[in-house]
Amino acid sequence: MIYELMAHIIKDDINHEDWMSCLPEKLWDVPLTHLSIPGSHDAMSYCLDITSPLLRSESETFRLLDGVFCCFTRPAIRRWATTQEQNIVEQLAAGIRYFDLRIAHKQYDSSNELYFTHVIYTQAMVIETLQTVASWLESHPKEIIILACSHFEGLNCKMHEELIYSLKKIFGSKLCPRDVALLTLRNLWASGYQVVLSYEDQSASRYKELWPPIQYLWANKPNAEELIKFLECKKRLGRPKGFFVAGLNLTTDRCFIASHPWVSLRTLTIENWNQVKKWLEDQKPGAEPTCLNIIAGDFIGPVPFCSLVIALNKKLL
Fold it and tell me: Phosphatidylinositol-specific phospholipase C X domain location, by residue (predicted)?
């Protein structure tokens, strides 16, 4: 049944490489915090290095299991820690404009190389990846992206300073300062700003180019019904000020993972997609308390996620 469902809905999302510049002119003066923006949860997990060590934040029990039964734990990690299939450029081309980037330094690594993470480390390195993003922005001068850098496991103060220096060098004048007066497409285009860079560490406060953490509404639920119930509850409490993310990503516990060896996060996401899709189509962006802003999901390629999220902006007209 699952394979029939996958065959029915899996298709490449429409290319939305320049969707921001193609918005109706009326929306050019709407703050980005009031637009509907597609986001990628754990954006770099498409290239996890299955041979890399576990993050040091993982429990000792899991470390022990992984050391003794890696033939079982590693396939499970691949099935459940992989949240995306498309690479960073493909995600940009599909229309993703918010990227959840979890950064770490490998334990016992004598180099200063930084990697992305989700349970384990990625093959892709941080600086190389962000240089690729900056290159893409050069050829798409009217697209604005939001990079949410977080976690920073294993980084000391010196590494933070070096990373921030590299980020400023890579993006240069494209970095939008956090005190910008008017956060609209028209104003950002006129100023040449293309990158809102959120940096979840206290060292960011010294740099005007770095934004504070962006609140992520994470349900931590295993099915669409509970996910929607959580998000509806949050909507009733009113939207946060500024940028915020409504996460559509599902989560299971390790008991479920161990007892369902043929299930993966991908199949779980697709099984629940139709119910999530119906709810998503009823949402709207804007300034009202129940409106959404950034909407982040898993496997943004196999389901028509970006098209739906971008289309919500029509409700502002």
Answer: 29-200
